């Protein structure tokens, strides 16, 4: 008892609890919950990858049972629960959890619906090709090894990680008193930013953000707003909103349906569907008629079919409000740096990774140098022996034992013990002339390698060049396109990053159907051909508007109510050449009798709005000019563009530069040319002034902006057309009766469309019944004003030309 009493120490329980809790907290922080900034891995992830590497589970080898992997990890490196190890293994194999999976799984590894994976005894796995890049050169003394839990084995304290895995795949974990939540990013963008940092260490976070646009989630979706991204990259903490990606389509019966194609990261698709069903059952959303999951191996497709009078965007806003179609992702860029948890900004993370890579390259180069020098030393000895082979053989034959022979060789030829032993171990086949030549070539290569490695170790710039070259190699091999789009604001939920800015044709019909078709759909033909079907129209419907533009352009839609609406071209659903399209009411909140009568494409709205004008001409011959800047803030429910009389409509809208000549054309072939300076700028609610004095029964057809390098192309309803130089149209004052532009008769039919064209441009001509032909403008003959033109399109009985457009 006395001995025990002497060994007792009196401590304050408060101090002991504090010390013990801090020890426990640091153990959890460093040993379990947080990733290392260098390889982006938590200890359990690192141990799984290293164990699989040690087991030879390479991408080109057969799969092995996950139970075997888990047992290997538990027995050698990670003395915790098997469930935690298997759960981590599964997550690294899920392509909806990891942006670039590090484990190649075979079997049921769960689903985006939240389904659990099969038991480890059923599933199999092996390393993914990209995981090999994390482990590459681990056998070349590139990282430190430490004893495992029972000090019977060695395990790596960090992996070489030949790409910035922490940013690329992200990480999340809850430690004691702190947590991390780093989103995944696009591999190519992160590598570009890393290279930019290496080339310019003084680069700012803002400049790095030119390369790293924002998080790139494996499930896609749309990030709304850039403010949270900027805050996270500057401070290490921020919050972003992620919304599902959807499209509005139309059923065969003409009803609208919302199709969800991508969902926010870490959200269960099944839970979203269940919640929507609850909202319908509880009558919180009454506009939904059907809900079904059509997802397959190709991707997610949740179809929400709406009732006939439902407005898709209103329904969508209700769903977003009550479900996880939109979620917040709180970014906390916390990682272990030099054994201490630290919050890093974007530049800090990249800088720490580059620091690690420099150490990896230096250690690898030093290892390879030592190996090359050791081999060169042996080859030098072998070459000496081969040069004196007869004497060497005599020494070996006359020696009592190998030790004596080694000593005599060392003394006679001034060899080291290693060289002498290598000579004794040499096989007789090395004495052939071929083998001697190989040794000489090997020695020359070794000397080059040694010289190169010494220059690398002596020059930090060469170390950086190696890092850049190897990162570029990985980017070229594994890089892919960004999946998550980024919208600049709530009003502009854009997916432009995912959509190429290719040429398209937007087609609108009289009954209000609209679609977007790639311009390449319509192949070039000779003039006079019949063309191909451009749209499958309902009886009594015909094509009225044809806009040629590119996917990223803004399109302004002007209606018979004198209002204007705005959409990006890519927001119009793409359809096949023969498809009818969808009702434009699914895209624009039009009133009951309101319909689109003109559409105008604007390439760069904000830049063009400084000096440009919107010029509107009406069917009754009125014209109005308004600054484009007044249309920049187009509201969702539209803006007033012009004040119209009850019996008047908008027929054409053009973008002008302030000094252009305008040419107004009528159905009966009349025209008038005047400078736009004759029309003063007016506000959006004004009515306009007289442009042309119309004959009885005539009406304005079109308006063309006169350009010196173009000619006027006219096409009649019956498919006759011609090109005429603008020189034939003298400048007059607005309001006059004008001049004849084309000879109109029963054979030609009334004038149908007009465009300014260059000889090398291609023109798309569309008929009322949906036929389209794409021809070269130069193929249409040039004639004077008083001619009727030539046949440019062969039409079916009762059909007529309704619109033409220049292929952008």
The radius of gyration computed from the alpha-carbon positions, rounded to a whole number of angstroms, is 37 Å
Count of helix runs: 19
What structural category characterises the helix and strand content?
alpha+beta
Give the assembly state of these chains.
single chain
Q: How big a fraction of the residues is strand? A: 15-25%
Q: What's the average pLDDT? A: 86
Main CATH class of the largest domain: Mainly Beta
Give the spatial strand order of the biggest sheet.
14-9-8-17
Number of domains: 4
**Second rung of CATH, namely the architecture of the largest domain:** 6 Propeller
Describe this protein's structure.
By secondary structure, the protein is of the alpha+beta class. It has four domains: 15-182, Topoisomerase II, domain 5; 245-324, Gyrase A, domain 2 (2-Layer Sandwich); 354-478, Topoisomerase, domain 3 (Orthogonal Bundle), CATH 1.10.268; 499-806, DNA gyrase/topoisomerase IV, subunit A, C-terminal (Neuraminidase). Helix content is 30%, strand content 25%. The chain is built from 19 helices and 41 strands. The chain has a four-stranded mixed β-sheet. Strands 10-11-13-12 form a four-stranded antiparallel β-sheet, covered by helices on one side. A hairpin with a 2-residue loop joins strand 15 (334-337) and strand 16. Helix 13 (346-387) runs antiparallel to helix 17 (433-458). The protein starts with a helix and ends with a strand. 41% of the residues are buried. Residues 530-535 have low confidence and may be disordered.
């Amino acid at each position: 008892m006395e001995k025990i009493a002497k060994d007792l120490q009196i401590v304050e329980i408060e101090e002991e609890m504090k010390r013990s809790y801090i020890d426990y907290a640091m153990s959890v922080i460093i040993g379990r919950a947080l990733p290392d900034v260098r390889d982006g891995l938590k200890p359990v992830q690192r141990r799984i990858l290293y164990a699989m590497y040690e087991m030879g589970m390479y991408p080109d080898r057969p799969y092995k049972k996950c139970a075997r992997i888990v047992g290997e990890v538990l027995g050698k490196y990670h003395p915790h629960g098997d469930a935690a190890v298997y759960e981590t293994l599964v997550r690294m194999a899920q392509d909806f959890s990891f942006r670039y999976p590090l484990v190649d799984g075979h079997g049921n590894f769960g689903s985006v619906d939240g389904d659990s994976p099969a038991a480890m005894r059923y599933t199999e796995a092996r390393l993914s090709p990209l995981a090999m890049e994390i482990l590459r050169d681990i056998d070349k003394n590139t990282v430190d090894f430490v004893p495992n839990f029972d000090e019977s084995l060695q395990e790596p304290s960090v992996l070489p990680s030949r790409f910035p895995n922490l940013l690329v795949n992200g990480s999340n974990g809850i430690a004691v008193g702190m947590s991390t939540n780093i989103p995944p990013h696009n591999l190519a963008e992160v590598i570009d930013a890393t290279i930019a940092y290496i080339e310019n260490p003084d680069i700012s976070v803002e400049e790095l953000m030119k390369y790293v646009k924002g998080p790139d989630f494996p499930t896609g979706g749309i990030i709304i707003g850039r403010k949270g991204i900027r805050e996270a990259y500057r401070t290490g903490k921020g919050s972003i909103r992620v919304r599902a990606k959807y499209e509005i389509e139309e059923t065969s019966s003409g009803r609208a349906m919302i199709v969800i194609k991508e969902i926010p990261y870490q959200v269960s698709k099944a839970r979203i569907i269940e919640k929507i069903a609850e909202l319908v059952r509880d009558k919180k959303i009454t506009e939904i008629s059907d809900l079904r999951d059509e997802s397959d191996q190709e991707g997610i497709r949740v179809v929400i079919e709406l009732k006939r009078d439902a407005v898709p965007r209103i329904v969508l806003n209700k769903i977003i409000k009550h479900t996880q179609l939109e979620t917040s992702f709180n970014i906390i860029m916390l990682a272990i740096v030099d054994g201490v948890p630290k919050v890093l900004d974007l530049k800090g993370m990249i800088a720490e990774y580059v620091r690690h890579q420099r150490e990896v390259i230096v250690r690898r180069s030093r290892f390879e140098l030592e190996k090359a020098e050791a081999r060169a030393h042996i080859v030098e000895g072998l070459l000496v022996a081969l040069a004196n082979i007869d004497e060497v053989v005599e020494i070996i034959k006359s020696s009592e034992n190998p030790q004596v022979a080694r000593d005599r060789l060392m003394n006679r030829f001034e060899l080291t013990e290693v060289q002498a032993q290598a000579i004794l171990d040499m096989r007789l086949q090395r004495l052939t002339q071929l083998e001697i030549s190989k040794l000489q070539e090997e020695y020359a290569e070794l000397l080059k390698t040694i010289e190169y490695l010494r220059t690398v170790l002596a020059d930090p710039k060469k170390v950086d060049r190696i890092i850049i070259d190897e990162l570029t190699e990985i980017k070229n091999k594994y890089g892919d396109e960004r999946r998550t789009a980024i919208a600049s604001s709530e009003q502009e939920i854009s997916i432009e990053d995912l959509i190429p800015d290719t040429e398209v044709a937007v087609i609108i019909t009289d009954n209000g159907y609209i679609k977007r078709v790639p311009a390449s759909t319509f192949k070039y033909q000779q003039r006079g051909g019949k063309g191909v079907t451009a749209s499958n129209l309902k009886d009594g419907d015909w094509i009225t508007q044809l806009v040629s533009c590119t996917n990223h352009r803004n399109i302004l839609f002007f209606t018979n109510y004198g209002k204007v609406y705005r959409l990006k071209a890519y927001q119009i659903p793409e359809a096949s050449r023969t498809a009818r399209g969808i009702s434009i009411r699914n895209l624009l909140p039009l009133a009951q009798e309101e319909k689109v009568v003109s559409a105008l494409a604007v390439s760069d709205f904000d830049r063009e709005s400084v000096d440009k004008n919107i010029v509107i001409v009406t069917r009754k011959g009125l014209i109005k000019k308004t600054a484009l800047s007044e249309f920049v803030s187009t509201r969702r429910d539209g803006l007033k563009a012009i004040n119209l009389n009850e019996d008047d409509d908008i027929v054409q809208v053009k973008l002008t530069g302030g000094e252009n000549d305008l040419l107004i054309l009528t159905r009966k072939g009349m025209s008038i040319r005047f400078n736009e300076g004759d029309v003063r700028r007016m506000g959006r609610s004004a009515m306009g002034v007289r442009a042309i004095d119309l004959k009885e029964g005539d009406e304005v057809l079109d308006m063309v902006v006169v350009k010196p390098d173009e000619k006027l192309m006219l096409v009649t309803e019956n498919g006759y057309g011609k090109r005429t130089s603008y020189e034939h149209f003298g400048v007059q004052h607005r309001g006059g009766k004008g001049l004849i532009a084309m000879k109109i008769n029963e054979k030609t039919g009334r004038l149908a469309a007009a465009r300014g064209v260059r000889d090398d441009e291609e023109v798309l001509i569309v008929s009322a019944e949906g036929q389209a032909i794409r021809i070269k403008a130069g193929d249409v003959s040039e004639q004077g004003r008083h001619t009727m033109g030539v046949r440019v399109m062969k039409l079916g009985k009762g059909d007529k030309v309704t619109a033409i457009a220049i292929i952008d």
